[in-house]
Each structure stands twice: as structure tokens, then as C-alpha cells.
Amino acid sequence: DIQLTQSPSFMSASVGDIVTITCRASQDITSYLAWYQQKPGKAPKLLIYNAVTLPSGVPPRFSGSGSATEFTLTITSLQPEDFATYFCQHLNNYPRIFGPGTKVDI
Amino acid sequence: QVQLEVSGGGLVKPGGSLRLSCAASGFGLGDYYMNWIRQAPGEGLEWISGINWNGDTTGYVDSVKGRFTISRDNAKNSLYLQMNSLRVEDTAIYFCAREEVRIETMPQKRPLPPKTIYYYYGMDVWGQGTTVTVSS
User: Which end of chain A is more exposed for a tag (fewer CB within 10 A), N or C?
Assistant: First the structure.
């Protein structure tokens, strides 16, 4: 099975910061990667699919990059509502493993 | 309004069974792959099972194989997860989520057969979750 790691696992940031989260896959997954945001007590929200594509309604301060085994989620100008935990997930095979998560806190 | 409503959680003893349901509204369940994901208290997300449009392809994480069964009834717009031989470590909030997957068939030069390409769009609609507690 494909394994995903994320770094960092926790980060402290401030409003207006640029935040970068990395997701690494144990094997080449081309661009089959999604990113999700989860706030406490809520279901996750899809932020990015196919490594770089934002679904409609996701603010453009979120962006994704990468391919093969290394991927990045970038949040430019962090907003108060962006303090949350972020997960990556690979999409093209079962099991559709999630990364362990990155908590972005104040 | 597009939504998923999860039900069926509760308190069960180790070794017991539960059946979770996920009812879709505002869209046709049969147009989507569907998934079950769980989250243990204070932990991350764990994908546990998925099923394709018509149910002829399913997948499971190793920790639930042979104990959990995913199924769907597109006519009832519902997804199910039958959970048997429950363990304390199955305690979690269980979410269902829909996943858009599209396929494209590309012709190839003879004698090659047509090539099927899959496009995956992520899990864009999630249910609110139901709590399963396994404890004696």
C-alpha cells in the first residue's frame, strides 16, 4: 500500500503568513492527490484535487503543487478561518490512504 | 440541497455488530463512488472502505478486512457499512463521503484495445458523522 507522510505535523502561524505543508508518497502517484481542511468537530472539506485543482468555492489563497512523490499545499496570506488541520490523500487506488495531518495553530 | 446523512452509530460491546447507513439527498448516489472514513478521538482521518458506482468493486483497509462490508442501494440512494466483530479500536466517528470519478475511453491503434483513463476528483461531500463506541 502507498504510505503518505506530512511535514510539519504542527505549525504555529499568524494571520497574513504564508504557510507551506509538504506531503510525500512512498511511491509515484502521478498527480492523484487531494488536500482537505478539517476544523474541530466538523467533517473535512475538499480543498484541492489532482494535486493542483481547486474545486469551485475554495479561495485562491490556497494552491497545490507537485507530482510523483512530493506535493505541497500553500496558503498565502493566512486568514483567521484557516486555522485548522490539513490532510493529504492519494486517490487512484484502494486503500485511499490519508496523510497523518498538519495542524496549523496560532 | 446536496447532503449526506449518516445514522446507525451507538454503543456496542466488543465482538458485537452495527450497521451504518448513509442517505443521500439532492443528487443521485449512483453517479458517484462512495467511501467510509473514520476518525478516532484525537486522531487523524482513516479511510476504511470504498465502493464504485454499481458496487462491483470494493476496497478496504487491512484493519477491517473480513469484518466490515460496504454496500450500496442506488435505488434507495443509500450507502451502508456492516460492521461485525467490533473491537475497542474501532471506536471513532464514522463519516461517509461521495467521490466523483469519471472514465474516458481512448481508441488506440490496432491491434491495441481501447485505453480506459480514470479521472479522480476527490471527496467533495461528506456526511456529518456518527459515533461508534466499542466498550464492555
Answer: C
Contact across the interface for B122 and A87, Cβ inside 8 Å? no
CB contact under 8 A, A55 and B124: yes
A91–B122 C-beta distance less than 8 A: yes
Query: pLDDT for A47-106, tens place per residue?
Result: 999 999 999 999 999 999 999 999 999 999 999 999 999 999 999 899 999 999 999 998
Can you read off the three cell numbers belonging to residue A2? 502507498
Residue-level pLDDT at A49: 97
How far does Cα B34 stand from its chain's mean position? 5
CB neighbours of B75 closer than 8 A, spacing ≥ 6?
none
Q: How many other CB atoms sit within 10 Å of the CB of residue A18? A: 11
Residue from the list A87, A92, A96 with its beta carbon closest to the beta carbon of B35: A96
C-alpha cell at B131: 459515533
Q: Please check whether residue A11 touches B, CB under 8 A.
A: no
